[in-house]
């Protein structure tokens, strides 16, 4: 295995632990993957393993057709979903699926999370839409998620949870954190009054700033 693949396995294992301690999942649910584009592989969390005890060697390496290349564990049942996103979105190299409580509540009532705070607008690029319901682990679910995700960076799975994507897996994880925070703010704001949604043209401008010039310049 190349250094790039081993580093990706290490990162995914670290984020699995962080996902659990951050309260974005409970038990063994949720999943994380990273695309190692130069090697033509995806690394993904194993099915049904305790994140607290996850080791880099537990992270499964698959080719982009879903064949296991390395690892003794069974890969996440949502591997087809991750692969479908990578095939549809060439700007994405990390996918994180969480069951965070407030975002999932929006998924249960089949209601999108509208852009009400600027950090979520920057990261997501618009409302977090709800994908049509399908059973987990199915090709139907993968197709619905890809369609609802479009060119944005987060999508809800009806009655299931949240998927965040990013240019790398750390960014995808941050998307999930920020969307959960935004969902809480949106829900609280609706109890206080009528939330004011950020205008579409401003959401686009915020997203473009984040994608093109946010943060420190590369050296």
Automatic annotation (TrEMBL):
GO annotation, biological process: pentose catabolic process
Where is it found, in Gene Ontology cellular component terms?
Answer: cytosol
The alphabetical list of record keywords is: Lyase, Metal-binding
Q: Which GO terms describe its molecular function?
A: aldehyde-lyase activity; metal ion binding
Start and end of every Class II aldolase/adducin N-terminal domain?
10-187
In the UniProt record, does the keyword DNA damage occur?
Answer: no
The residues that cross the membrane are: none
Gene3D superfamilies reported in the protein's UniProt record: Class II aldolase/adducin N-terminal domain
Q: Does the keyword field hold Transmembrane helix?
A: no
Q: Which Pfam families match?
A: Aldolase_II
UniProt protein name: L-fuculose-phosphate aldolase
């Amino acid at each position: 295995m190349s250094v790039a693949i081993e580093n990706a396995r290490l990162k995914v294992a670290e984020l699995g632990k962080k996902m659990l301690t951050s309260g974005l999942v409970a038990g063994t649910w949720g999943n994380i993957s990273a695309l190692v584009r130069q090697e033509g592989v995806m690394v993904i969390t194993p099915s049904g393993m305790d994140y607290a005890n996850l080791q880099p060697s537990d992270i499964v390496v698959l080719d982009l057709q879903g064949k296991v290349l390395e690892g003794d564990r069974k890969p996440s049942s949502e591997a087809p979903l991750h692969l479908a996103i990578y095939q549809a979105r060439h700007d994405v190299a990390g996918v994180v699926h969480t069951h965070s409580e407030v975002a999932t509540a929006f998924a249960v009532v089949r209601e999108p999370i509208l852009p009400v705070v600027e950090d979520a607008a920057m990261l997501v690029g618009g409302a977090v839409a709800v994908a049509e319901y399908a059973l987990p682990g199915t090709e139907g679910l993968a197709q619905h998620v890809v369609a609802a995700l479009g060119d944005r960076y987060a999508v809800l799975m009806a009655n299931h949870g949240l998927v965040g994507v990013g240019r790398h897996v750390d960014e995808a994880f941050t998307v999930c954190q920020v969307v959960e925070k935004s969902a809480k703010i949106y829900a609280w704001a609706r109890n206080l009054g009528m939330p004011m949604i950020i205008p579409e043209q401003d959401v686009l401008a915020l997203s473009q700033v984040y994608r093109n010039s946010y943060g420190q310049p590369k050296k």
